[in-house]
Amino acid sequence: xxxxxxxxxxxxxxxxxxxxxxxxxxxxxxxxxxxxxxxxxxxxxxxxxxxxxxxxxxxxxxxxxxxxxxxxxxxxxxxxxxxxxxxxxxxxxxxxxxxxxxxxxxxxxxxxxxxxxxxxxxxxxxxxxxxxxxxxx
Length: 137
What we know:
mainly alpha, 0% strand, single chain, 137 residues, 72% helix
């Protein structure tokens, strides 16, 4: 029972202090895509774990019918139950990841709605303009 999930060596989005409009948009986009990929991987993991749980349950029935020692039936049942429980928890994690994806894209749209105009004005001027929030003092 192996997993095709691979560990990433670094974070998908660098957390730095670059708060320019285009940088924030790029970070939100990259985060959304990374979380979307994680959601797909988690859904695959859940299916695999559930399949293993179902298979293990069948093995438990088979060894029970073969009249093996009842302790092996009990242990196999416990493994099947643990796998099914883990699959449920992975499903919850996948749902949380999907909620994060949705919120990330919603945040990206809200950020664009609030700051795109200011970025366009600032980007198309030769003169320096105040940073966002300068006049909110």
